[in-house]
TrEMBL record:
The chain crosses the membrane at residues 23-45, 57-76, 96-117, 137-165, 197-218, 239-257, 269-288. It comes from Mesocricetus auratus (Golden hamster). GO terms for cellular component: plasma membrane. Keywords: Cell membrane, G-protein coupled receptor, Membrane, Olfaction, Receptor, Sensory transduction, Transducer, Transmembrane, Transmembrane helix. It is a multi-pass membrane protein. Residues 38-286 form the G-protein coupled receptors family 1 profile domain. Belongs to the G-protein coupled receptor 1 family. This is Olfactory receptor. It comes from the Eukaryota. GO terms for molecular function: G protein-coupled receptor activity; olfactory receptor activity. It is found in: Cell membrane. CDD domains: 7tmA_OR1A-like (cd15235). InterPro entries: GPCR_Rhodpsn (IPR000276), GPCR_Rhodpsn_7TM (IPR017452), Olfact_rcpt (IPR000725).
């Protein structure tokens, strides 16, 4: 495109998910309130009960904190835009939104892999659990997850800000989806595409492989357990985590398993599950079948 005919984009238009905006607004508002309150309650309960100051619940508290942030990256802006009757988001806001999406979206995966490793140690090496899962290692695993995802986000945003956006600025979503925004650029996006494919695949597959390997060892250990009670205890320990893993990775595969040139309403639903439903569901997944969480919550209620 000739430089004289270019008009640099200063804002993007978020077209949303549906023409029934009132319904979407009510749904998002309700889910966001549940997400914030549910995850905050998990963090509060774990911090207030000394019996829950263990590696497993330390990682769960971190996961809940990340879910609060992840949901807060996209939903509040969509709600504010609806209340103001606007669809716009500034260029800088869009870049910032994508940066934090890269961080928190991938942090969930890394924390789930760390939690899988914790379950592997607890079931396969119970006698050495406290020796292996020391507080210093737990903090180190979380810090490494933060560093990797921040570097991942920084790489993609630095590549994104090098692009030129011309007259097309309508994003067919309720937030700045990086792959949809990338399609709007009138620059050559080859480097961005290759980086997203190779480096993005590494960021996606690394925690996923860790989870699969951890559960492979867990499954092998469970098969060798002599008592049905031991098997039930092991499976109850892993059940909630496996449910969260299936929901998280199922949504990711639903969103990113095919080219965005064929973006459809099914992809929009999968994207909502990934960015909104998963952070909302995790507190229920980890608390409904967890006696420790329910017991600690009961103590807090009785104390107050």
């Amino acid at each position: 495109m000739d430089g004289d005919n270019q008009t640099t984009v200063t804002e993007f238009l978020l077209l949303g998910l549906s023409d029934h905006e009132e319904v979407v607004f009510g749904m998002f508002l309700g889910m966001y309130i549940v997400t914030i309150s549910g995850n905050f309650l998990i963090v509060l309960v774990i911090n207030c009960d000394p019996h829950l100051h263990t590696p497993m619940y330390f990682f769960l508290a971190n996961l809940s904190s990340v879910d609060i942030c992840f949901s807060s990256v996209t939903v509040p802006k969509a709600l504010v835009n609806h209340m103001l009757g606007s669809k716009s988001i500034s260029y800088k806001e869009c870049m910032a939104q994508m940066y934090f999406l890269f961080i928190f979206g991938n942090l969930d995966g890394f924390l789930l892999s760390v939690m899988a490793y914790d379950r592997y140690v607890a079931i396969c090496h119970p006698l050495h659990y406290t020796l292996i899962m020391r507080p210093r290692l737990c903090v180190l695993l979380v810090v490494i997850s933060w560093v990797i995802t921040n570097l991942h986000a920084l790489l993609h945003i630095l590549l994104m800000v090098q692009l030129i956006f011309c007259s097309h600025n309508a994003v067919n979503h309720f937030f700045c989806d990086p792959y949809l925004v990338l399609k709007l650029s009138c620059s050559d996006t080859f480097i961005n595409d290759v980086t997203a494919f190779i480096e993005g695949a590494v960021i996606f597959l690394t925690p996923f492989i860790c989870i699969v390997v951890s559960y492979g060892y867990i499954y092998s250990k469970v098969l060798k357990m002599p008592s049905a009670q031991g098997i039930r205890k092991a499976m109850s320990t892993c059940g909630s985590h496996l449910t969260a893993v299936c929901l998280f990775y199922g949504a990711i595969i639903g969103v990113y398993a095919h080219p965005y040139s064929s973006y459809s309403s099914q992809d929009a639903v999968a994207s909502v599950i990934f960015t909104v439903v998963t952070p909302m569901a995790n507190p229920f997944i980890y608390s409904l079948r967890n006696r420790d969480i329910k017991g600690a919550l009961r103590k807090i209620i009785l104390r107050s």
